[in-house]
Amino acid sequence: MDIRDQTPKARTDGLLVEELDDETLVYDLETHGAHCLNRAAALVWRRSDGNTTVRDMVPLLAHVGLPEEEALIWMALSRLDEAGLVESVTLPGAKSGFSRKEVLRVLGATAAMTFILPAVESVVAPLAAQAASCITLAACQKLPKNRCGGLPICENRSLCCKVSGTKCAALAC
Amino acid sequence: MDVLDRHGWTEGTTISVQGVRVGFRTDRPGVLERVYDLLPPGWKPSDRGEVRRLYSLRVGGEGKRRGFRLYHILYMNASRLERSMDLEYLFDRLEADVQLYVAERARRRIFVHAGVVGWRGKAILLPGRTLTGKTTLVSELLRLGATYYSDEYAPLDPEGRVHPYARPLSVRVRAADPRPTRQTAEELGAEVGRRPLPVGLVAFTHYRPGVHWRPRGLTAGQGIISLLENAVPARRRPKACLATFREVVSAAGLVKGARGEAREMAEALLERAE
User: Fold this and answer.
1) Parent domain of A158
2) Which residues of A touch B232 (CB under 8 A)?
3) DSSP labels for B137-201?
4) Which of A169, B116, B126, B243 is within CB 3.0–4.6 Å of B149 for a Cys-Cys bond?
């Protein structure tokens, strides 16, 4: 099967969706990721219905003022895939993503056009405790090194919970 | 909990704030007076005794045997939250824990970790977690004539208006100070806001030495997810957060960027908020 005959399917379960004028917000209730899709990304996400092929999506780009270039669809799909908003997609040439630079080169466009390219901005909603004003030394030392968070240590607020080697420790803020 | 309940508690109270009820008890007369100073703004005594969260403060100090000192211990329900020889430290922990609990569970407000001032009938919101320089910036804005609303949390109502949460500011004179000093807005010559305000400007910023503030504008969607990153009940009530933030961004300017010295930034913010 030609890779362009794939029919991407958007995830719909466990998502909260808010439509804004030019953007779509998606909150993932499973991962607590919040994603902001610009018009081009939202268009591809909406048409990822499991029936529309990548090839058929290309003409839709004109609706958001973009050239009908297949690379833009792949770019959108790779961003949506990274955000976990589409079921697995096989990208052409075993590529794992499409950088803005690459796509602009394909389009022969300028950097000024980057803002209309498909984009998905993501954040992870914090745990309430991550919004706290301090963390105890004991709690800091129990955290895995990728979750130190940088919060001040409650016992001494001139120290913060930071990565030290393979663990979290109280270091100068 | 039964064992803890059998301890000789001498004073106790239940308070209600933002629709959340919290209980406190202690075994040392007079300590509750100190606890009242730590409670979130707007608290009221509650005559309903049943609470989901009960803090118990066991005051240690000199033991019965000469030369022995006992730990002060703070419990949250049946769990020991903290123990220390420093009672002030436990008060700090109690304050932070109660504030966070209320911020997460408040029924009609969405609490965002942010500094807030009022300016010309609108609010300037400065979201950011601890140590991003919120208090320094808020203090500087107050010196320039802004009205004080909060240096910690911005309670937002469903219409997107921000309500006062005017605790004394936690000022660190030196970065190495283990405990911030409390300063009231009045001591800085500022007024305290009393009424809710619509948000006029949201500035996402953090301190970086030597930087000049050159903010970039954010779209409404970017503003909403950035607010979500600082929202205390983001995971508990994502739908309410999104709806509230939508109201906020519908009428507010949204900017983001690292800042240098607070004075320069404060002047630029007020100019932008005009």
Assistant:
1) 131-172
2) 126, 128, 131
3) HHHHHHHTTPEEEESSEEEE-TTSEEPP--PPEEE-SSTT-SSPEEE-TGGGT-PBP-S-EEEEE
4) B116
